[in-house]
Amino acid sequence: MATTRISKIKIRQGNFSDLPLLGPGEMGYAKDVRRLFIGNDTVNIGTGNGVLTQFTIPLSLSKPNITAIFVAGTQQNASTYTLSGTTITFSSAPTGAITARFNSEIEVDSDVTIPSSIE
Q1: Long-range contacts of range 43-48, CB-CB < 8 Å, 24 or more positions apart?
Q2: What are the residues whose beta carbons fall under 8 Å from the beta carbon of 117, sequence distance 6 or more?
């Protein structure tokens, strides 16, 4: 007779303010705002030459989705840069490879179960 094994998959969950930067493919659920996120691979933005302060990101990142910016492998404090659409502006010109890690929000059409009760 075949052996049946039931497994349960859980994802990180908690309040939105506590949601960490997720690893690539890792999922997280912000229970207080009922929003679902997934972590992404690192995105290469460019190389700072110590002169330029503005760089174009190859895709749009938004502040509400937890974002980390790295220069030469060191995570930057959020007070040292601003994000606006596809543009990142540093308060002082960086030197070295500029990369980003971020969580993407998975949009859900509705969080209501239809029918409202299942027997």
Answers
A1: 43/99, 43/100, 43/101, 43/102, 44/97, 44/98, 44/99, 45/69, 45/88, 45/98, 45/99, 45/100, 46/97, 46/98, 47/96, 47/97, 47/98, 48/90, 48/93, 48/94, 48/95, 48/96, 48/97, 48/98
A2: none
pTM: 0.73
**Burial of residue 22 (number of CB atoms within 10 Å: 0-12, 13-18, 19+):** buried
Lowest-pLDDT range, 15-19, 30-34, 83-87, 92-96?
A: 83-87
Please write the tens of the pLDDT for every residue from 51-85.
999 999 887 665 557 679 999 999 999 999 998 87
